[in-house]
Each structure stands twice: as C-alpha cells, then as structure tokens.
Amino acid sequence: MQYLSNPFRTVLLFSSLILLSAYPMNAQFLSNQLAQTRVKEAQKAKDVLMQRLFTEKGLSYPPKELFFRAFKKENLFEMWAKDDKTGKFVLVKTYDICYASGSLGPKRK
Description:
40% of the residues lie in helices and 19% in strands. It is built from three helices and three strands; from the N terminus they run H-H-H-E-E-E. The longest helix has 20 residues, at 37-56.
C-alpha cells in the first residue's frame, strides 16, 4: 500500500479507474484490472474518499467526464469533473506536485 501514500499516484490511479468504469466497452479491461490485488486494494481503500469528494461538490460519482490540468512551474495538479446538471466543469480538487523533472517551456525536439 506504499504506492497509495503518494496523493498524485492515488489520483492518477482512481482517475483511470473512473474513466474505465464510465465506458462499457472497457468493462472487460476494468474487470481484468480489478482482478489484480494491488488495484483491488487501492480501489477499496480510496473509493469512499473519492465518493465523498464528488458528493461535497454536488457531482455524481463516478463522473462521466474528467479534465486534468497540471501547472509545472506552480507544482499543481487539478482534477475537474463535468456537472451533469449544468454541463459545466467543476474543480474537484487541487493537488500539490512533489517533484517534476525537466525544465519549463515548450519541448520542440
């Protein structure tokens, strides 16, 4: 469970699970993933937290659409979800990025 101690990894893992569960065509892939012990433990440990997070924002869970935005200079990672009622994206949570490699600016190579 050390893998889940990093909030950024937790968000990425559950964002992936939410996205995968939102699309029926990926049902087989999701069931294969949930057969893995680490994925099943992570889902069990964090699902209640994610449900609470979305409920506090008045959003359905799992969301149908997610949007992620990262700011390298500011070391921030944002998770947005589309509100089914208004059709607008709502900021669900902002996470601090502990570390980023490379330099700022466009990558042209």
